[in-house]
Amino acid sequence: GQNIDQPTEMTATEGAIVQINCTYQTSGFNGLFWYQQHAGEAPTFLSYNVLDGLEEKGRFSSFLSRSKGYSYLLLKELQMKDSASYLCAVRDNYGQNFVFGPGTRLSVLP
Amino acid sequence: DAGVTQSPTHLIKTRGQQVTLRCSPKSGHDTVSWYQQALGQGPQFIFQYYEEEERQRGNFPDRFSGHQFPNYSSELNVNALLLGDSALYLCASSSQFRSTDTQYFGPGTRLTVL
Predict the structure, then answer these.
(1) CA-wise closest residue to A70 among A105, A17, A19
(2) Which of B64, B30, B28, B63 is nearest to B45 (CA)?
(3) What share of chain A in percent tops pLDDT 90?
């Protein structure tokens, strides 16, 4: 089966660092993606991991361990505009079908 | 370079009616996937179209059907609407040629079934 887990909600303070975890059990794997989604808007691409390790992209970094079925998204120097839902998604082996987690709603407080 | 576009933005229907949602993919993309996103949840995969054929399908009933046209645009049709079909419907496009790339989402169509 396909199962992706993320915490439902997280709260952090402006300027701080937050780590959003994602664990997955899927029948196939061809990459793990993180998306940001503001309320009422479409998801926008943040990062992509297909090999183990850390990918850094400005204030955002994403880590993957395929053997553990685990990823995290690290957000540094949090800003108020980072308040959004963060979606973890695994792409399957064959097509470009993405299995999404339930999303983590992050609230950044002043 | 136009991104993924969807129409309409919002739609209100009553139970039992039928609805058609439309999507135009990002320029250069040939694959269209449709997702249903209920409030507070992650997107759920409905199906994917490539070369005008349904290539993959998620766990959705036959009331959900689709079509892809020669210009790669796509339609999602839902028959016999239920209250539970109320959701944000997202279209995402990608390229088979560049299969390592991500998919890009359109702004979505908010469907409300009364």
Answers:
(1) A19
(2) B64
(3) 78
